[in-house]
Amino acid sequence: MSEFWEDAFQEKKLMWGEEPTTLAIEASEIFKQLAFRKILIPGFGYGRNARPFYEKGFEVTGIEISSTAIKLAHKLLGREIQVFHGSVDDMPFNQDVYDGIFCHALIHLLASGQRKKLILDCTRQLRHGGMMFFTAITKDASTYGVGEKLGTDRYRTKDGVNLYFYDTDSIEEEFGGFGLTEATKIDEAGHGKPATTFWKIVCKTTAT
Known about the structure:
29% helix, alpha/beta, 6 helices, single chain
């Protein structure tokens, strides 16, 4: 998987532009209202979705598998950003506990066991009363059912990307035991690209 993403970033560079997603902005505003301080972003990419968190003064830690993406992030956000170079499969990279977690368009790229581990690892690094935002591709996406079928609701695209498409049942199955509070559909348009239908998935731990 690492080599694939290195090639993708080398070829397309800032493939989604520099502007953050609408949901990243929304999450940063909610986290600010809740007086959160420390934020973890698995699947950091080249940092576009981290920007609203930095701008609001959060202490941000990222995880990113592509060294090329991290280099681009340094150019966009500065050398002082803290990003662990590695796969989310290898979480945790530290023993810190975070107030909020933002994970955009990553979990649907993973196999079943990887998805379950990511949710569990994120929950373990979330403080009591913390909140997690995930986005995941829906069955309404135009790519659903296209390409080689790898399993139930999972397909390999012509570009070699493996995608798992979520519905309400699979969201409840995978996130229901981790404080799931919201699962709604949103459209996120990429830079110069048509909108893609995602699930906005929000989980919150109980404060003690």
